[in-house]
Amino acid sequence: MLVDEKDASCPECKGQLSVDEIDDCSMYVSCVECGHDMRVEPDAFGDGCVKYYIPFQVSQEFGDECD
Ligand SMILES: [Zn+2]
Predict the structure, then answer these.
(1) Per-residue pLDDT tens digits for 11-56
(2) 30 C-alpha vs ligand 1 centroid, how far in Å?
(3) Structural domain boundaries enclosing 54
């Protein structure tokens, strides 16, 4: 799930970030440009969790991922 560039960007290269994985208290994001990855809070992008964390959680529960 791509992160809106208005919300956050890669600290290394200012590239676009992508949410790869979440768990109960964190999101794992990586940069689509340079591959830099990091663990952040669920509301790290100032969206109160509603834009990335919760939708990602919902998509996982419904088994959107085929692999
Ligand atoms: Zn980067």
Answers:
(1) 999 999 999 999 999 999 999 999 999 999 999 999 999 999 999 9
(2) 8
(3) 17-61
Amino acid at the residue 40: V
Q: How far is the CA of 37 from the centre of ligand 1 (A)?
A: 8
pLDDT at 66 over 80: no
Q: What's the gap in Å between 18 CA and the centre of ligand 1? A: 10
42 domain residue, yes or no: yes
Q: Which residues does 8 contact at the CB level (< 8 Å), separation at least 6?
A: 17, 29, 44, 45
Q: CA-based diameter of the chain, in Å? A: 34
Instruction: Report yes or no on 5 lying in a domain.
Output: no
With respect to residue 1, please indicate whether it lies within any of the assigned structural domains.
no
Domain count, the chain: 1
